[in-house]
Design brief:
five-stranded antiparallel beta sheet; 439 residues; alpha+beta; eight-stranded antiparallel beta sheet
Length: 439
């Protein structure tokens, strides 16, 4: 890093908002320490800092709440961390239009609390929502169980402002739900992990808060039966907000016994939810339902929060986490096969899946020896790929990531992705090497 660079950045954002040396240690990624950490306080300061980085060809890593920084291939170098926590304003809330415009550094829970004062909410439920920021959620397209009914961030954003690698602002969408003019640029940036631009502002469509919100834990003796139950729910008149298929180990970690279970979220007006709870028991009874329990209030929230936290680093026994994307009809069979593969290598496994969309979180535990972890992850990838699906190592120690590819081979779409990257980031400074295909 050029010796004059920190002073340049201090003139842009102010001396207290530039860190160097040992002060950068909280922002280490995969053993790599950043050369400088910058905290811009406006979109203009973001643009100016990016222009300096582009001039020096300094790699830039965007940072929101830091809740997804372990996702991606290990970086070869971290030049500048651009931390957006000072961009934390709720710019405009129009309750009558059911829209809100916010800066990227707004913590998610604070946004929900403010919207709740007007009886509204943003229908996302990402993990670590107390620390996750709006920008980080969009950059990683993070979501939770409620994606079953309400979709992901891609479905809720109607406008986005991004600062490009050259420091220029790019705007897509608008501030009204019916805005349909032009290319749908927001969907390009959402889920790009900061490789195409720095998200600084977003407009979302909102929903009224439901009158009633319940969680039904429907227990089965076998995962196969729970999987059959999930298919029955999907083919019924029920409209669950969430439908999670969990194995016995996950159920034990949630504090609800063993076997297997469906976690079914039901929300809406009270008569509707009461009917759906009763209908769920009637529907699942002939399929091997061993019992059900209805949770509400803090107990419901704690169960969802615990489920979201199971696949996050920090548990002493966690060895790796892999995500699979497969057909919903294949879930129970593949989850059983994955657990058996882990057992063959002397490891434990906990499996949970978004049953309606076929996304599995597979958590590997109990192994400090990288060889067994590598062998299991390799088998897991083969299982998902063999079923026509995809696999991604969401978290693993560096010693494992060096031996197992984080992403599946990108295939023929890589050429198109590289073309977009070269157009939007010709110098290759935005989070380089961390995304699919080394982008």
């Amino acid at each position: 890093m050029p010796s004059a660079l920190p002073d340049q950045l201090r003139r842009i954002v102010g001396a207290p908002h530039v860190l160097t040396g040992v002060e950068c240690s909280p922002y280490v990624v995969e053993g790599r320490a950043p050369e400088v950490v910058v905290f811009p306080g406006s979109r203009e300061e973001v643009a100016a800092a990016l222009a300096v980085a582009a001039e020096q060809r300094l790699p830039v890593t965007p940072w929101g709440g830091g809740t997804k920084m372990w996702v991606g291939s290990p970086p070869s170098r971290i030049g500048m961390v651009l931390a957006l926590k000072r961009l934390d304003r709720i710019l405009e809330h129009e309750p009558g239009d059911l829209t809100v415009t916010v800066e990227a550094g707004v913590p998610f829970d604070r946004l929900q609390a403010e919207l709740g004062k007007r009886g509204q909410w943003l229908s996302l439920d990402p993990a670590a929502s107390d620390r996750a920021t709006v920008g980080g959620i969009l950059a990683s397209d993070a979501s939770g169980p409620r994606r079953h009914l309400y979709g992901t961030a891609r479905d809720l954003v109607i406008g986005l402002t991004v600062i490009g690698a050259d420091g220029r602002a790019v705007r897509g969408g608008g501030k009204v739900v019916k805005n349909v003019a032009g290319y749908d640029l927001p969907k390009l940036y959402i889920g790009s992990f900061g490789t195409l631009g720095i998200l600084v502002e977003a407009t979302f469509k909102l929903r009224p808060r439901p009158d009633v919100d319940r969680l039904v834990i429907a227990r089965f003796d076998r995962l196969k039966d729970a999987g059959q139950g999930a298919r029955a729910v999907l083919g019924s008149d029920l409209i669950p907000s969430a439908l999670e298929l969990v194995d016995g180990e996950t159920l034990r970690r949630l504090g609800h016994g063993g076997g297997a279970a469906l976690l079914v979220g039901l929300d809406g007006i009270a008569p509707q939810v009461d009917w759906e709870v009763a209908e769920l028991d009637r529907l699942l009874g002939p399929l091997g339902l061993a019992g059900s329990r209805v949770l509400d209030g803090p107990e419901r929230e704690e169960t969802w929060r615990t489920l979201g936290g199971l696949g996050r680093p920090g548990h002493d026994s966690m060895a790796a986490v892999m995500k699979w994307a497969v057909l919903p009809t294949q879930l129970a069979e593949l989850m059983d096969a994955g657990a058996a593969a882990a057992q063959r290598h002397g490891l434990g496994a906990a499996m949970a899946a978004h049953a309606g969309v076929g996304i599995v979180t597979a958590i590997l535990s109990g192994g400090a020896e990288p060889g067994a972890v590598v062998a299991t992850l390799t088998e897991w990838r083969a299982l998902a790929n063999g079923a026509g699906g995809h696999a991604m190592v969401e978290w693993a120690p560096l010693a494992v990531k060096e031996r197992v590819a984080v992403w599946d081979a990108p295939g023929p779409t890589l050429r198109l992705m590289k073309g977009i990257k070269e157009r939007l980031d010709p110098s290759g400074i935005l989070n380089p090497g961390r995304f699919v295909g080394g982008l």
